[in-house]
């Protein structure tokens, strides 16, 4: 099983700041990694797929990068609606796995 | 509008069994692979199981393999998860999630979840 480790667990930032957080895989997932956003009471929303591709309707301030075992999600300038929990997920091999999540909270 | 509505959750004792259902509407279920994902209290998301559009292929998380069975009835527009030999660590909200047609094994729509509590 591929273990995804996200860091930090919590990120405290202000609106307008840049957010960068990490997802590290226990073995290579090639480019088969996605990012989801989860707000309280809502279903997860697919943001980025296959490392760097934005899903339909996702603003350009969200970007993904990386390859192999190390991946990064960047929000260039935080908007109030971006404060949420972010999860990475790999589809490289079964079982599919998620990271533990990074909570982006208002400072 | 795509809708996924889970049902069947509840409180039960360790060792018990439960069958979850997910009713799909707003799309043709037979065109999509489907998944179950769960979230334990205070924890992150955990993928549980996958079933292909025809039901011919299934996959499971190691933590549930041999105890849980995923199935579907496309004519009834429903997805199921039969859970046996339940343990305290299976306590979670269970979500059905649709596999994204554009890229397999990512999820584009989720239900609101059904709570399963396993406790003596």
Low-confidence stretches of chain B: none
Any idea what the shape of chain A is?
Answer: globular
Would you report the number of β strands of chain A? 11
The helicity of chain B comes to under 10%
User: Regarding quaternary structure, how should these chains be classified?
Assistant: heterodimer
Mean pLDDT of chain B: 96
Proportion of residues in β-strands of chain A? over 45%
The low-confidence runs of chain A, each spanning 5 or more residues with pLDDT under 50, are none
Q: How much strand of chain B?
A: over 45%
Plain-language structure description:
The complex is a heterodimer of chains A (107) and B (120). Chain A is mainly beta. Chain A is built from no helices and eleven strands. In chain A, the strands form two sheets. In chain A, strands 2, 4, 5, 6, 9, 10 and 11 form a seven-stranded mixed beta sheet that branches. In chain A, strands 1-3-8-7 form a four-stranded antiparallel beta sheet, with no helix packed on it. Chain A starts with a strand and ends with a strand. The mean pLDDT of chain A is 96. Chain B has 120 residues and is mainly β. Helices cover 0% and strands 51% of the residues of chain B. Chain B contains no helices and eleven strands. In chain B, a hairpin with a 7-residue loop joins strand 9 and strand 10. In chain B, 41% of the residues are buried. The model of chain B has no long low-confidence stretch (mean pLDDT 96). Classes of the chains: A mainly beta (107), B mainly beta (120).
């Amino acid at each position: 099983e591929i273990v995804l480790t996200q860091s930090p667990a919590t990120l405290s930032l202000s609106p307008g700041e840049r957010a960068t957080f990490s997802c590290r895989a226990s073995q290579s997932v090639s480019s088969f990694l996605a990012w989801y956003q989860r707000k309280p009471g809502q279903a997860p929303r697919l943001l980025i797929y296959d490392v760097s591709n934005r899903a339909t309707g996702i603003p350009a301030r969200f970007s993904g990068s990386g390859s192999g075992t190390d991946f990064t999600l960047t929000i260039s300038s935080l908007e109030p609606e971006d404060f949420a929990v972010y999860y990475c997920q790999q589809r490289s091999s079964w079982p599919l796995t998620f990271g533990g999540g990074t909570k982006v909270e208002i400072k | 509008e795509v809708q996924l509505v889970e049902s069947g959750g509840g409180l039960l004792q360790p060792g018990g069994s439960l069958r979850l259902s997910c009713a799909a509407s707003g799309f043709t279920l037979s065109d999509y692979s489907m998944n179950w994902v769960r979230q334990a209290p205070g924890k992150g998301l955990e993928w549980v199981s996958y079933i292909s559009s025809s039901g011919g292929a299934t996959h499971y998380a190691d933590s549930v393999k041999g105890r849980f069975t995923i199935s579907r009835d496309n004519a009834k527009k429903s997805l199921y998860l039969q859970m046996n030999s339940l343990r305290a660590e299976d306590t979670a909200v269970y979500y059905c999630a649709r596999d994204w047609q554009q890229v397999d094994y990512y999820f584009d729509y989720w239900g609101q979840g059904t709570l399963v509590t396993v406790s003596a």
